[in-house]
Amino acid sequence: LQTGLCAxxxxxxxxxxxxxxxxxxxxxxPQIMIETIQKEFNIMSVDWKTSKGGNSGLxxxxxxxxxxxxxxxxxxxxxxxxxxxxxQKLEEWQKAGANYAMHLPNAQxxxxxxxxxxxxxxVVRGPHVEHWLNGKKILEFERWNDAWKKLRDSGKWKDxxxxxxxxxxxxxxx
Length: 174
Prior knowledge:
Distance between the termini: 12 Å
Oligomer: single chain
Radius of gyration: 15 Å
Largest sheet: 6 strands, antiparallel
Shape: globular
């Protein structure tokens, strides 16, 4: 995602205000990957809107290696989705702003209607992660502690042993 670049991915339009590195195509389509390896970022801000039924997300800490056939096997995801108009029933952990299949947004979440711009921020400082939506902190968690490991190992990621473990990685738009 470079300054001025707009990408239409799965009916979600993303526009990035700050360049985080050169955009490259990943061998794990249909994804867009930032070339620069990220360790920490204090404010990674993305403006996005979705059409009816749109679904996408921004993963961070993604490891690109031949042993992984998908970015989601290593990288946590900030979910961008139409909570109301998605064609299937969504679990709470699948909805916008969630750390997909791990942490739910709090009551501060105020998702704008389909077709209107939302602003999301992701803050990563070592093990500490925050997800923000439209100026409100909607979730925070600590990676790699016992509670995080228990949650990861008991849910969707139990068969993805390297999920969320990377201390550095790429940003990937799914």
